[in-house]
Design goal:
By secondary structure, the chain is mainly α. The protein contains 12 helices and 7 strands. The protein starts with about 20 loop residues before the first helix and ends with a strand. Bound molecules: benzoyl coenzyme A. Benzoyl coenzyme A (BYC) binds next to helix 2, helix 5 and helix 9.
Amino acid sequence: MTMAAVDYDGLIPNNVALGQDVRVKRALEKWHPGYINWWNDMGPEGFQEALVYLRTAIGVDPKGWAKFDYVRMPEYRWGVLLAPQHEGRKIPFGMHKGEDAWQEVPGEYRAMLRRLVVIQGDTEPASVEQQRHLGKTAPSLYDMRNLFQVNVEEGRHLWAMVYLLQKYFGADGREEAEALLQRRSGDADTPRMLGAFNEKTPDWLSFFMFTYFTDRDGKMQLEALAQSGFDPLSRTCRFMLTEEAHHMFVGETGVTRIIQRTCEAMKEAGIDDPHDIDKVRALGVIDLPTVQKKANMHFSLTLDLFGNEISTNAANAFHAGLKGRYREHRLDDDHQLEDSNYPVLRLINGQVQNEDAPALSALNMRLRDDYVADCNAGVNRWNKVIEQHGIPFAIKLPHVAFHRHIGEFSRTNADVDGNILSPAEWTKRRTDFLPSAADKDFIESLMQPQFETGKFASWIAPPKVGIDNKPGDFEYVKIADA
Ligand code: BYC
């Protein structure tokens, strides 16, 4: 294993010996001002001058890779960090399985690889844009700091992809790197590339659901790309996954703390029926059925990010050795899949049924199945909290056919149990499953800032432990210095 030291002397911290790579160094330095302009225009609104207690990567050793300190976000040291190179690494799957991993882009796969890198890169700034207004309604300084931590690291993930574009894709790569700064989440003319990244993240429950569900798609896709035979992509994604874990932690614990506060308030007020929504809302907390509706929305939007269940793109990327399966190295098969099948959920004669498909074509479906299993683990932990309070309610992930815009189920309307509904029934029952305008108004009414050190908004419990083991009254964001 070769572990290059991180060079912090130049404009761009890196462990890829940028100092000796004049062409790429210049290209990145040229891209830098545009990035800072984008960050100032589209990054967290209203807090660019605040001092935020942030984690910055200073190495890639899993033990001790980060340091914490107060930083103004535009001065964050966004860098290029790749996980250590494994000497003699082989391509782990596809038609080139067993050959030496590529250190340069294979010519025949250039376009396919560039598309994967660009799509991955596009999601990173998109999420920052989606979350840019949330600082103003943060339920505590702790949560505000976590939001900004996620934001700066998504910025770093953009850097990670831009490095690959600039280093390995010549003039096309430079153009793509520019275009990543031009597209805007939700813009009518120049939207971000994937559907879920053009949706709004209007409130903190949405933010926690997004970091739970959508960042978890990030984890699955990065795990699949970390298997890549193109070694620089693999190494980049491996290090990104180290940072990504915190984002999902923010989502999982955020929702847990909301559920906990709701359950506590219900118990204190002697309310046992979770469906007595008016009474629960009168306590200034979010009722559990509304938490369920938000989960339905974010889960279903995120499932669309896995693409079509049957996909030639996915088959080609695997066959070529560019994008593997979730934890490919732990799977016990031939890693080529030429002769195997995989069960795919399809709509057959109006019924949702499994049908075997060639495993290579079904790779999006397979990754989505792994994703659903991963999602369920955290949902079970949410339900433990509800159970501990003796409230008869459980959060349940909706059926994968529910509320879909991509793939097999995009042309039909299913309820949360996968029953197919007529268009009229769907319209009538839509707000039984997804947040209504009144639900949104209620959540919005709770989004009042709580910026006092150590205090939390009425609808969310404090965390069990602080970031970097800081005490409960730690000033995670110094707004006064803004
Ligand atoms: N919206 O053959 P198909 C993250 C397009 S999240 C719009 O099924 P494929 C993060 C598709 O592009 C992880 N269009 O596609 C999380 C294709 O169009 P073209 C991001 C869509 O390639 C939180 C056509 O439909 N990384 O990191 O098998 C915060 C045919 O589709 C959508 C990646 O996704 C959609 N949802 O699967 C921050 C990894 N879905 O090219 C960050 C890289 C499909 O024919 N991307 N289409 O015009 C991929 O691996 C694949 O491109 C996809 C799509 C899984 C996205």
